[in-house]
UniProtKB/TrEMBL annotation:
PANTHER family: GLYOXAL OXIDASE, SECRETED PROTEIN-RELATED. It comes from the Eukaryota. InterPro entries: Gal_Oxase/kelch_b-propeller (IPR011043), Gal_Oxidase_central_sf (IPR037293), Glyoxal_oxidase_N (IPR009880), GO-like_E_set (IPR015202), Ig-like_fold (IPR013783), Ig_E-set (IPR014756). Residues 81-459 form the Glyoxal oxidase N-terminal domain. The keyword Signal applies. This is Glyoxal oxidase. It comes from Collybiopsis confluens. Pfam families: Glyoxal_oxid_N, GO-like_E_set. Residues 1-28 form the signal peptide.
Length: 579
């Protein structure tokens, strides 16, 4: 601590400011303190399809998917249902998909290739000029790593005859696992107005394991009929946590054993069509103890026929958190409350370790056109009363102080069913989509939404730290030294380094999303940072990642790296496994 007399000539306000966070150098010139900036929503550009699935595929590109039902974007003389969004120009270009990607899932593999999985049986509008597309339910679509910043020479690859899933899956989810493959979870076989009445209660993998034979899951059976888009995460020991409906489970991929975990308390259901959302909280060295947070959804009974539910039924404000250790599981779910209920929220991990809870509605349900007494002006939306202000959750804060919306802005664009959202490599949040309608609708309150927005954190308007000379590929259990430039007004004693998978957004869920903090040491001259990478391929499933450095609450842009050997899955164990 500095003696108080050092501050004696300064006004009280700068004294408090300086004492709380700034390095000594600022004390001599308080007028150089820059404003801290503010959160803001900025609208920029419009998509040509409904961005109902969203994934960052390169430092400048976001890939989005919709369905074959009237989007204005054209390709080869017909409607497009895949689009590449350029973060530098805020414009999109059409990509050609063969099969229908409606309500599909996806993720990146260990070699950097994006895979889109599942979809729907084609549902063409009566007078469509679109050529008949393929049945998307077994769809596998590849987007190889794209080095062209504009994406002009990059394409989707599909060969439905030879490259497809083993089972029909509409509304599945998927995640990258420790060997760099994808695990694909559940889904339904065909058009279902609301509940999962024709389930595919299995897991499969891409590339396939078990000679392509799907594995039956008692958990998926137990979680019917409200278990579409199960929320699953790869844990740091390689097992998978899944929550669906009001049930949760640990799945050991290697022994194929399911271990039931405590159900979500208070009758709350958290998966489609009663969409809450879930995230794996940031993992920190040295122990990487996994904790999951599950928020929103509904406590309505799932034995009520959908026509007896209404758009005005309150969504749940409940969040539940559990530590996935023996002791944590014994303790069970700990209940917290959001400022309001949310149906279809998403949770975005941000590089300082907080969680942005955003989007969704205060009442009603996911899906469309299925509950009783739809509100005429709202078209087919099963949900009503959009939540227009996000809220931040700080996992490190004391219970009761974790939710904070001070300074968070309010938008007037509803992001309801069929919205997509992601953290970008720039460090801000991209929001697009919303279409609780079958087909494109113009004039309802919840019309098809093409406007793109960014939610900019306060640091976007400040001088930010810059990291450079970052290797393209980094190994596990290694030390990597990178260059760093830290603006003078930041306290360089407060440095956090996050290794992030930005995830795949579909149906109020960010699959594969992950933040692993890395220990880092700043050199004496403050020009380089030595980072310790995660110990092995289970703590961070091998594949693409972004490194963000946050100094004193100001986050750098993310730098893309390949973690692990970068080979095609399944890859071998890498780094050191705990003994
Ligand atoms: C929108 O994005 C374009 C391209 O990056 C940029 O030139 C323009 O300034 C942005 N407009 C606003 C309002 O941010
Ligand atoms: C397609 O049908 C809709 C009504 O079903 C009509 O409004 C629209 O004009 C038609 N479009 C074409 C190209 O015929
Ligand atoms: C979970 O939901 C099922 C119906 O889907 C219900 O039978 C069961 O009681 C619920 N469990 C809890 C703990 O609320
Ligand atoms: C659903 O609503 C109908 C018509 O109002 C009613 O007859 C029926 O009992 C309700 N069913 C349930 C399970 O609430
Ligand atoms: C169900 O959720 C609503 C909205 O959060 C709440 O008002 C109600 O008390 C809950 N009911 C039960 C039985 O927990
Ligand atoms: C929607 O409203 C606009 C402006 O009032 C009108 O020009 C357009 O025809 C309407 N579209 C439909 C599909 O009704
Ligand atoms: C990545 O692996 C997948 C699955 O084997 C393969 O289809 C794809 O072409 C590979 N991509 C690269 C860049 O090697």
């Amino acid at each position: 601590m500095r003696p108080n007399l050092l501050f004696s000539s300064l006004p009280i306000s700068s004294l408090l400011f300086a004492a709380s966070s700034l390095p000594a150098i600022v004390l001599s010139s308080p007028q150089s303190v820059t404003p801290k900036g503010e959160w803001s929503f900025v609208q920029n550009g419009t998509t040509g399809i409904t961005a109902l699935e969203v994934i960052v595929v390169s430092p400048t590109l976001i890939l989005m998917f919709d369905r074959v039902f009237g989007d204005p974007l054209q390709i080869d003389g017909h409607q497009a249902w895949a689009e590449l969004w350029n973060l530098e120009t805020n414009t999109g270009i059409a990509l050609n998909a063969i099969t229908d990607t409606f309500c599909a899932s996806g993720a990146l593999l260990s070699n950097g290739t994006m895979v889109s999985l599942g979809g729907q049986l084609v549902e063409l509008p009566p007078n469509s000029t679109t050529p008949p597309d393929g049945d998307g339910r077994m769809g596998v679509r590849l987007f190889e790593p794209c080095s062209d910043p504009s994406g002009l020479n990059c394409a989707l690859f599909e060969d439905p005859a030879t490259l497809h899933l083993a089972a029909n899956r509409w509304y599945p989810s998927s995640l990258r696992i420790f060997d760099g493959s994808l695990m694909i979870i559940g889904g339904t076989h065909e058009g279902t107005p609301f509940y999962n009445v024709d389930p595919e209660n299995t897991f499969e993998f891409f590339p396939p394991k078990d000679n392509g034979v799907p594995r039956f899951s008692p958990f998926l059976e137990r979680s019917l009929p409200t278990n579409l888009f199960p929320r699953g995460f790869a844990l740091p020991d390689g097992k998978v946590f899944i929550v669906a409906n009001n049930q949760s489970v640990l799945y050991d991929i290697e022994t194929q054993i399911e271990t039931p975990l405590p159900p979500i308390p208070n009758g709350v259901r958290v998966t489609n069509p009663m969409d809450g959302t879930a995230t794996l909280l940031p993992l920190s060295p040295p122990l990487y103890i996994p904790e999951v947070l599950v928020c929103g959804g509904s406590n309505s009974s799932d034995s009520i026929p959908s026509l007896n539910l209404t758009t005005q039924d309150p969504a749940s404000d409940q969040c539940t958190r559990m530590t996935l250790t023996k002791e944590g599981i014994e303790k069970g779910w700990v209940v917290e409350r959001m400022p309001e209920g949310r149906m279809m929220p998403e949770m975005i991990l941000i590089p300082d370790g907080k969680v942005m809870i955003i989007n969704g509605a205060k009442t009603g349900y996911a899906a469309l056109g299925s509950v009783g007494e739809l509100v005429a002006a709202n078209g087919q939306s099963n949900a009503d009363h959009p939540v227009f202000t996000p809220v931040l959750y700080d996992p490190e804060a004391a219970v009761g102080r974790r939710f904070d919306r001070e300074g968070l802005p309010t938008t007037d664009i509803a992001r309801l069913y069929h919205s997509g959202i992601t953290l970008t490599p720039n460090g801000n949040i991209f929001l697009a989509g919303s279409n609780p309608n079958s087909g494109v609708v113009e004039n309802d309150t919840f019309h098809t939404e093409f406007r793109v927005q960014y939610l900019n954190p306060p640091f976007m308007s400040r001088s930010r730290p810059i990291i450079h000379n970052v290797p393209e590929k980094v190994a596990f259990h290694d030390k990597v030294t990178v260059g760093i430039d830290i603006p003078n007004d930041l306290n360089e004693k407060d440095i956090k380094v996050a290794l992030m998978d930005l995830g795949f957004s579909s149906h109020a869920f960010h699959s594969s999303s992950r933040l692993v903090f890395m220990d880092a040491e700043l050199s004496g001259d403050k020009k380089s940072l030595t980072i310790t990478t995660p110990p092995n391929n289970r703590v961070y499933p091998p594949g693409p990642a972004y490194i963000f450095v946050t100094v004193d609450d100001v986050t750098s842009k993310g730098t893309r790296v390949m973690i692990g050997n970068g080979l095609s899955p399944p890859v071998e164990e890498q780094g050191v496994l705990p003994s």
